[in-house]
Specification:
- The chain is mainly beta.
- Helices cover 10% and strands 28% of the residues.
- The protein has five helices and 19 strands.
- Strand 8 and strand 9 form a beta hairpin.
- The longest helix has 12 residues.
- The radius of gyration is 34 Å and the shape is flat.
Length: 369
């Protein structure tokens, strides 16, 4: 242990990049961008923000990449104290990893996307200097809303308990053109007090909304079989030990519980454009899957054979150990739940989306509608 610890510390130090403090006067050009190079984001996505400084000495420094050759070092990054980064609107989740979460509500970035901005600033001085501010605008994409189904369901039920009914959903659909997606459609899903927004950015990417019943609970596991009794030890000289008893069989696993039924889903289309809107959302109600059957219990182990007893001119033999019991069978899986009802109706946009009307009006003014 005394030898291993210093070796581990040296290895950690070798992996830790040097932090280079760059002064504003050292910077020729500066840029800010997504670390992965993407220019768009999905609402709610976690991203890292990279600042790249091209220095007057010809080297390149990054706040995240260690292999740029910053100040001709092989393993170096910009000192975080030299880096000022901002993102609006967004929520920083790690200032050291420069990681943020974009707003999950697509309406928050519908008009302008997200602006990244920042600069290099001096450190260790009474009056800090800084470079010119640089910025980059990331635009939203809503393919993530269409590539997977938006499923509303509870987690799995408790052991041997049938799944609950899926949530009842009201799905409201209207056109909502944006500066980036003139054919976009807004899908608002209401489930009790919960509200979620999704975007179908074009006709080829409809949003799928599903109410799913809760998964049924798994069956109880079978009991382990009892252990066989040990054989009796010999009580007289030259006597043999008794055989051990056989182990008991394991209990069978219980059946999985049935999945819950799907909830009712009502989709309401803005009546001004029903034919175009119908193709932009797919709604379903499905039953929850049944729980897995319980595992069969293990067979009990056989008892030990009893010990023989030696005499003056003889020796008794030990008894034979008992055989293990059989394992129980796994229980059957539970049945799938039944689907709920799906219906549709027409509505008036200003009534369907009353809380969102200020946002709608702002967009319409901007787009000249």
């Amino acid at each position: 242990m005394k030898t291993t610890l210093p070796v581990l510390l040296l290895a950690l130090l070798a992996c830790t990049p040097d932090k280079i403090r760059v002064q504003p006067n050292d910077v020729r050009t500066l840029q800010v961008r997504r670390f992965d190079g993407a220019t768009r984001f999905c609402p709610g996505e976690f991203i890292q923000v990279e600042m790249v400084a091209n220095l007057k000495d010809g080297t390149v420094c990054s706040n995240l990449r260690t292999d740029t050759g910053c100040r001709k070092q092989k393993n170096a990054v910009l000192d975080p104290k030299s880096v000022a980064l901002f993102a609006e609107p967004a929520r920083w989740v790690s200032s050291t990893l420069f990681r943020l979460q974009t707003p999950p509500n697509p309406l928050a970035t519908w008009k302008d996307g997200i602006e990244l901005r920042g600069w290099i600033q001096s450190t260790g001085t009474k009056y800090p200097l800084r470079t010119e501010q640089v910025s980059r605008r990331l635009l939203p994409t809503y393919l993530c809303h269409s590539q997977i189904s938006q499923v509303f369901s509870d987690g799995q039920a408790y052991t041997a308990t049938p799944g609950r009914r899926g949530p009842n959903l009201t799905v409201l659909v209207t056109a909502l053109p944006s500066p980036y997606y003139p054919d976009a459609v807004l899908v608002k899903v209401v489930s009790g007090s919960q509200v979620r927004y999704y975007i179908s950015q074009d006709a080829g990417n409809p949003v799928t909304v599903v109410s799913q019943g809760q998964r049924g609970g798994n069956g109880h596991d079978g009991d382990t079989g009892r252990r066989g009794a040990d054989g009796q030890n010999a009580t007289s000289d030259c006597g043999n030990g008794g055989d051990g008893g056989n182990g008991g069989d394991g209990g069978d696993g219980g059946p999985g519980a049935q999945g819950g039924p799907g909830g009712d889903v009502m989709v309401v289309f803005d009546k001004t454009n029903i034919e175009a809107l119908e193709r932009r959302v797919i709604v379903r109600s499905v039953g929850g899957p049944g729980g897995w059957g319980g595992r069969g219990g293990s067979g009990g182990s056989g008892g030990n054979g009893g010990s023989g007893r030696s005499g003056t001119n003889c020796s008794g033999s030990s008894g034979t150990a008992g055989t293990a019991g059989r394992s129980g069978s796994d229980g059957p899986a539970g049945h799938h739940g039944y689907p709920g009802r799906v219906g549709q109706s027409l509505g008036v946009r200003d009534e369907m989306f009353a809380p969102e009307l200020p946002t709608f009006k702002e967009l319409e003014i901007r787009l000249g509608l």
